[in-house]
Specification:
single chain, 2 domains, about 0% strand, mainly alpha, globular
Length: about 475
């Protein structure tokens, strides 16, 4: 049953996200407290630069592999599967090595000429190795995903996060920022080796005779994804980069502290991540029904997490990072809205499955321009809060535009009730949390659970979730 396969993938992806988010928060908390805002800002800038340039290690190769290898695998054409893996793998390897070398060579220029922070030079040199190993492990993970197998996501999360945590705890006290980034490098290398060994053992058929792939078709698809991936990565990190240019390094630390919490929460409930291999196999009414259920359940999950972040923003920052990071509270309040964008980012899989990647590219490019313009004026006016507002506005534009294009091209669209009913139910959750006013970790957990209970009671009462939904979910699970 396809639904069971999707559920299994969602569980693997969610569990991997849970591990990554939990360890990521622990690492972020530890580094934020150990390094203090100034050095934590330098660390955050180095990682942001690495993740930004990591776009050039892919240029659409990985999602192209998932799209076309998944299609070939579904038709049991293993020679063509091998063709995609080997041909695109060569491109990926070259891009990863070249990008890593360029980043290392330009570290001094980036740190002094761009950010005017000489202390950033050595961290950028070291982070170039992270770019190489992380990008290659991403490609290996995508091979698993092309086979509709998301167990690799869980394996990578376990190996990477455990290695990262241990390495950072051992190195930071002696080497500060350099030790923190070295922990990222060590962890990415270990996860790459582990994933490669498991891939060879589990899918040995990827070795052997390979068919030539249709490069014209692949390059068209990858070309749009290249532009899209660059645009989207710049979109994701331009706020941090612009804060680093326009404001002191400590403000980058405050902003990334808030942003890390939002990303961690959003990744836990991001069902759309696993949908591309599934949507490739669906057409017509089957596609519409699958989309409708995914959107409904994603919306039901997203709203309570978003409202909980807003209601407990001060407590979360104070408990997680300490009083030194209280200036991050307003940014967290604004950025909490991005939880919806993460959980309801269903449009990418829809357009990707239907070989229409150009539309997300066009929309994201426009959204990026809006984001950069708004960031410049709003950061100067309101600091990191302005960066958060600019990011939310541009994300809302992108999401709405893609939803309207999807309705026109594929007749695939969401039902308004799937937004309004969870939104209405969440007002009760917010009131419950505000009434309880938790001040400790245990208090926050209890307030969240009490709010969730009230939320689902109201949601059931207004038929935001029905008996049929419960039966459907039970059937999939059991």
């Amino acid at each position: 049953m396809l639904a069971k396969k999707v559920l299994r993938n969602v569980l693997c992806n969610s569990l991997s996200s849970l591990i990554s988010s939990a360890v990521g928060l622990i690492v972020t908390i530890y580094l934020a407290r150990e390094l203090k805002p100034g050095l934590f800002g330098i660390f955050s800038l180095a990682i942001s630069v690495a993740l930004l340039l990591m776009t050039f290690t892919d240029l659409g190769v990985s999602p192209t592999l998932v799209r076309y290898a998944a299609d070939a695998y579904a038709r049991r054409d293993f020679e063509l599967v091998r063709g995609y893996i080997k041909s695109l793998g060569k491109v990926k390897l070259i891009l990863s090595i070249v990008t890593s070398i360029i980043l290392f060579a330009l570290s001094n220029i980036i740190s002094t000429a761009v950010f005017h922070k000489p202390a950033l030079s050595t961290p950028i040199e070291i982070v170039s190795l992270f770019v190489l190993f992380r990008s290659l492990s991403n490609y290996v993970t995508c091979i698993f995903n092309a086979f509709n197998d998301y167990s690799a996501n869980l394996i990578r999360a376990i190996t990477y996060e455990s290695s990262r945590l241990v390495s950072i705890l051992l190195l930071v006290s002696s080497f500060a920022v350099v030790g923190a980034i070295a922990g990222f490098v060590i962890a990415s290398f270990i996860s790459l080796i582990a994933l490669t060994l498991i891939l060879i053992r589990k899918y040995g058929f990827i070795f052997g005779t390979a068919k030539k792939i249709e490069w014209r078709r692949v390059l068209r698809y990858a070309g749009y994804l290249t532009i899209g991936s660059i645009t989207w990565t710049v979109f994701a990190y331009v706020d941090s980069i612009m804060i680093g240019i326009l404001l002191p390094a400590r403000d980058v630390g405050f902003y990334r502290a808030a942003y890390s919490i939002v990303i961690a929460v959003g990744s836990l409930i991001s069902i759309p991540t696993v949908l591309l291999p599934v949507f490739v196999q669906l057409e017509g009414q089957d596609m519409k029904k699958a989309f409708d259920r995914v959107f409904k359940y994603s919306s039901i999950l997203a709203f309570p997490f978003m409202f909980s972040l807003i209601a407990m923003d001060r407590n979360i920052i104070n408990i997680v990072y300490g009083r030194e990071y209280l200036p991050a509270i307003p940014a967290l309040t604004v950025l909490s809205l991005l939880v919806l964008r993460s959980a309801l980012g269903v449009w990418g899989p829809v357009f990707g499955a239907k070989e229409k990647p150009e539309y997300p590219v066009y929309v994201t490019t426009i959204a990026l321009i809006i984001n950069i313009i708004l960031n410049y004026f709003m950061i100067l006016q309101w600091g990191i809060v302005g960066a958060g507002v600019a990011t939310v506005i541009s994300n809302v534009f992108s999401w709405v535009a893609l939803s309207l294009i999807s309705r026109k091209l594929f007749d695939v669209f969401f039902r308004l009730e799937h937004l309004f009913k969870p939104l209405l139910s969440c007002t009760i959750l917010y009131l419950v949390v505000e009434f309880l006013r938790p001040s400790s970790i245990a208090g926050c957990v209890m307030a969240f659970l009490a709010g969730i209970f009230a939320y689902f009671v109201v949601l059931l009462a207004i038929k935001g979730i029905t008996v049929d939904d419960i039966k459907y979910i039970s059937k999939i699970v059991f």
